[in-house]
Amino acid sequence: MADALDKAGRKGTVLSKDQVYSGPIFNLVKETIKTPDGLEVERDLIDHGNAVTILAITADDQVVLGTEYRVGRNSETIGLPAGLINAGEEPLTAAKRELQEETGYIAHDSQVMTTISSSEGFTNESVSLILTHIDPSEHGDRHFDHDEYVNTQLVPLSQVIELLKAGKIRSAQGICAITWYLNFIREG
Prior knowledge:
By secondary structure, the chain is of the alpha+beta class. The radius of gyration is 19 Å and the shape is globular. It is built from three helices and ten strands. The longest helix is centred in the C-terminal third of the chain and has 14 residues, at about 170-185. The strands form three sheets. The chain has a four-stranded mixed beta sheet, with helices on both faces. A hairpin with a 4-residue loop joins β5 and β6.
């Protein structure tokens, strides 16, 4: 008997698609799908562009954190810099652009730590978690989108960990980026 994990990655066959909503950030699509196991199912899909979340850190372990209004919480939330990847743009290029747009900081020695799914049950969005280094003395102009404003500051990594433990950082992407870094990249 084959291991159940061997089945991961098998594709379904989309039998029909009906776009029921088109918006500036995502589309809503109703799909009829034949699953790899032969079931015919109807699903709603939030068709969403891919994104980046950036863990920007200084040589002395200061992390760029920001607060920004988020409609899903109807409040300002604490998080890492993040944004959508433009069409034809690579994740590292998007991360460099988004970091400078939101914070003014210049990305150096960037790397993709991993790519995660936001919620595989209803959206196709993937988020690349980017680690980058910054020099706080290198600071350019910020360029916000017309409908955003982000307050940013440098926070010691130890305090960021305390914010995580206290449940003050709630974004899944931010939590994943920080914990991936702490568990798989950071030495000591």
